[in-house]
C-alpha cells in the first residue's frame, strides 16, 4: 500500500471527524440557525415565492452559508483565493474547502447517494470535465499543504404551508485527486453543468478504502425522524 495515499486518507478522515465534532457538539445551535429565517418569513416569503424553483434553491443555499460561516468562525484562517469553496480555511497542515449544497427532496439527482460538484469544489480530475483545485497547494515546495474538500448537503422539502422544512443534513468527504488510483472513475457521475466537474456518487464506494476500519465518507449530522437513512443515501449504512 502506498504510504503517501494512506496519509492523505488519514488527513481527510481527521478533518472529517473535526468538522463532525465542531457541528455535532452543539447540533441545536446549527438547526436553530438554519431555521432562523422563519422568524422573519412574513418579510421575505412573498418575494421568495415569486422566483423560479431553481433560484429558490440557490437563495436557500446562500442563507444556509451564512449560518455555517458563523459556526466555522474558529475553524482556521480564512483564505481569500477567488478559486475555491464557499468556505476556505488554512490550518497548520492543510487547506480545507467546505461547500454547502442544498437539494430539494423531490429532486433525487442532487442527493440519493450523490452530490453535484463544481469545478472549484474538487481536485479529483478526469476526462471530459475541468477541476480547478490542486491536490496540494505549493506542491513540492517547503510550504506544501494538502487540499481537502468537504460538502455539507442539506435536503429539504416544502410543507403544506409552503415553508422550507429540513429533512437531512449530511457531511461528505470528497476524495483528493491523488486517490484516483484507488477510487477510479466509478465514483464519477454526470455533471450538473457540462464540462464542470461531476456528480460525486459516493454510494458507489462510500468508505475510506485505505483506512483499517474503513469508516464511511458520509455522516448524518441531522435526520428527520420520518425519513430513513436509505431514503437519503440510496444505500443502507451499517
Question: Which helices and strands occur, and which strands form pairs?
Answer:
Blueprint: H1 3-24, H2 27-34, H3 45-50, H4 53-71, E1 77-78, E2 87-90, E3 94-104, E4 115-116, E5 136-137, E6 145-158, E7 164-174, H5 180-183, E8 188-189, E9 199-200, E10 218-223, H6 229-233
Parallel strand pairs: 3-6
Antiparallel strand pairs: 1-2, 2-3, 4-9, 5-6, 6-7, 7-10, 8-9
Structural class: alpha+beta
In terms of per-residue confidence, which ranges show pLDDT below 50 for 5 or more consecutive residues? none
Straight-line distance between termini: 26 Å
Order of helices and strands: HHHHEEEEEEEHEEEH
CATH level-4 homologous superfamily: Restriction endonuclease BglI
Helix content: 25-40%
General form: globular
SS strand fraction: 15-25%
Q: In CATH terms, what is the architecture?
A: 3-Layer(aba) Sandwich
CATH class category:
Alpha Beta
CATH topology descriptor = ECO RV Endonuclease, Chain A
Number of strands: 10
- Total number of domains: 1
Q: What's the helix count? A: 6
Mean pLDDT: 93
Main beta sheet strand tally, sense and closure: 7 strands, mixed
Keyword list:
single chain, 238 residues, alpha+beta, ECO RV Endonuclease, Chain A, seven-stranded mixed beta sheet, three-stranded antiparallel beta sheet, 6 helices, 27% helix, 24% strand
Amino acid at each position: 500500500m502506498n504510504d503517501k495515499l494512506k496519509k492523505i486518507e488519514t488527513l481527510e478522515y481527521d478533518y472529517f471527524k473535526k468538522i463532525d465534532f465542531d457541528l455535532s457538539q452543539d447540533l441545536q445551535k446549527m438547526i436553530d440557525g438554519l431555521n432562523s429565517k422563519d422568524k422573519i418569513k412574513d418579510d421575505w416569503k412573498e418575494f421568495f415565492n415569486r422566483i423560479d424553483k431553481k433560484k429558490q434553491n440557490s437563495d436557500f443555499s446562500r442563507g444556509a452559508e451564512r449560518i455555517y460561516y458563523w459556526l466555522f468562525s474558529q475553524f482556521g484562517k480564512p483564505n481569500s483565493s477567488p478559486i475555491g469553496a464557499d468556505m476556505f480555511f488554512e490550518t497548520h497542515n492543510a487547506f480545507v474547502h467546505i461547500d454547502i449544497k442544498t437539494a430539494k427532496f423531490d429532486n433525487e439527482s442532487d442527493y440519493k447517494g450523490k452530490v453535484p460538484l463544481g469545478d472549484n469544489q474538487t481536485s479529483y480530475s478526469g476526462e471530459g470535465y475541468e477541476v480547478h483545485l490542486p491536490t496540494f497547494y505549493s506542491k513540492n515546495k517547503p510550504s506544501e499543504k494538502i487540499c481537502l474538500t468537504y460538502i455539507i448537503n442539506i435536503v429539504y422539502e416544502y410543507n403544506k404551508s409552503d415553508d422550507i422544512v429540513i429533512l437531512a443534513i449530511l457531511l461528505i468527504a470528497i476524495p483528493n485527486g491523488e486517490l484516483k488510483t484507488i477510487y477510479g472513475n466509478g465514483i464519477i457521475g454526470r455533471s450538473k453543468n457540462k464540462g464542470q466537474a461531476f456528480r460525486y456518487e459516493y454510494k458507489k464506494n462510500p468508505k475510506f478504502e485505505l483506512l483499517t476500519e474503513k469508516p464511511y465518507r458520509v455522516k448524518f449530522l441531522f435526520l428527520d425522524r420520518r425519513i430513513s437513512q436509505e431514503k437519503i443515501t440510496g444505500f443502507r449504512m451499517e
